[in-house]
Amino acid sequence: MKYGTTSPGSRSEGLIYKQECFDIVGAAIQVHRTLSPGFSEPIYQESLEIELAHRKIPNVPHQRMSILYRDQELESYFKPDFVCYNKIIVEIKALKNLSNLEISQTLNYLKISNFRLGILINFGSYGKLEWKRIVL
Q: What is the DSSP-derived secondary structure letter of residue 10?
């Protein structure tokens, strides 16, 4: 299965959900500017939820999503930090640096949900907000 990540400054022609991504990342940048790094993930989660609502960006925090295995629903499920526009997974972190583990987690959420775009946002890095588009 082909997937890729893009970061700020990458070529953006033909990106899926380009405007929606721009809007979500804009909300995250506002939260990052206001709070700065150093808080725990739940603080950023709640703040981003407020900012998304303020910007009228459709979102469901911690939406429970079922996992199927051989057409059977597992008792286990996953809850991405946000589902925005009913088609984009938004996963947030408060880490010094993102690693392949966080990218893999977001990719798995995309595979299970059959969504095509995930946005991985890290509020913990100093300087600019760190974020990645993850496309399935």
A: S
Question: CA nearest 118: which of 98, 134, 100, 95?
Answer: 134
CATH number of the domain that residue 118 is part of: 3.90.320.10
Q: What is the pLDDT of residue 106?
A: 96
Residue 9 has pLDDT above 70, yes or no: no
Amino acid at 63: Q
Statement: the pTM of the whole predicted model exceeds 0.85: yes
Q: What is the mean pLDDT of residues 31-56?
A: 96
CA distances from 15 to 57, 69, 85, 90, 133 (A): 19, 31, 16, 16, 10
Structural domain boundaries, residue 31: 4-8+15-135
Are 120 and 132 a contacting pair, CB within 8 Å? yes
Here the contacts of 10-15 (C-beta below 8 Å, separation 24 or greater) are 15/133
Mean per-residue pLDDT, 50-66 = 97
Domain count, the chain: 1
Q: What is the 3-state secondary structure (H, E, C) of 72-101?
A: EEEEEEECCCEEECCCEEEEEECCCCCCHH
**Residue 38 identity:** G
